[in-house]
Amino acid sequence: MRARAPRKPRPPLRKEKLEELALAYVARFATTRARLAAYLKRKVAERGWEGGGEPPIEAIVEKAARAGYIDDAAYALSKARSLAGRGYGPRRLDQALHAAGVEEQDGAAARDHAGREAAEAALRFARRRRIGPYASAPATPEAREKALAAMVRAGHDFRIAKAILACRPGDQIDPESLELP
User: Fold this and answer.
1) Which of 24, 42, 86, 176 is the most interior residue, by most CB within 10 Å?
2) Complete DSSP assignment for 98-153
3) Residue 123: exposure state from Cβ atoms within 10 A (0-12, 13-18, ≥19)
4) At what angle do helices 108-116 and 72-85 cross, to 10 degrees?
5) How many DSSP H helices and E strands does the chain contain?
6) How far apart are CA 65 and CA 83, in angstroms?
7) Whether residues 53 and 23 fall in one domain
8) pLDDT, tens digit, 9 for 90 and up, residues 25-71
9) DSSP assigned state of 82
10) Are residues 24 and 66 in the same domain?
11) Tens of pLDDT along 145-181?
12) Are residues 141 and 56 in the same domain?
């Protein structure tokens, strides 16, 4: 077997190449301003910067946002719909938005959506995990405790989780009866 020749080091980045990387990233991934900035900073750290001064990362991010390639509010709402559809609650959404760097005002509509969908999302989670009214047999106290912990970790309110787990298998449950005051 022949040994591979060592890779030639890649040249440091210029403004044009940094813009190309940003465009390729937003074309491939739904992202936020903060994540795009972190990606570009990582690329500059890996390859270095050819130009004088600081790389124009914030300017490139703003340019992408003005062009409509990045919309933090739309990203947040999409994330809220996705998580609620999979049965995750409002607190899980808050964690995801915080991790993505979505600012408070950009995430407001997403948080409203998650609040409106909280009870239905909790029922989706219970159905997927086959707990509460969707269980095949009554749960033991230990199993109920584990299910409660799983629902709380999934971002659901403790009171909603307890109400769902208090149901017997086969009970019909109305999402509106679970709504918090």
Assistant:
1) 86
2) HHHT--TTTTHHHHHHHHHTHHHHHHHHHHHHT-GGG-SSPPPHHHHHHHHHHHHH
3) buried
4) 20
5) 10, 0
6) 24
7) yes
8) 999 999 999 999 999 999 999 999 987 889 999 999 999 999 999 99
9) H
10) yes
11) 999 999 999 999 999 999 999 989 988 888 887 765 5
12) no
Alpha-carbon distances of 110 from 39, 52, 84, 116, rounded to whole Å: 24, 40, 10, 10
Tell me the residue range of the domain where 131 lies. Answer: 73-178
Measured CA to CA in angstroms, residue 52 lies from 7, 14, 20, 49 at distances of 26, 10, 19, 8
Last residue of a domain, one of 70, 90, 115: 70
Beta bridge partners of 49: 13
In a domain, 3, yes or no: no
pLDDT at 1 over 90: no
pTM for the full predicted model: 0.86
Give φ, ψ of 84 to 5 degrees. Answer: -65, -40
Residues in the chain: 181
Tally of structural domains, the chain: 2
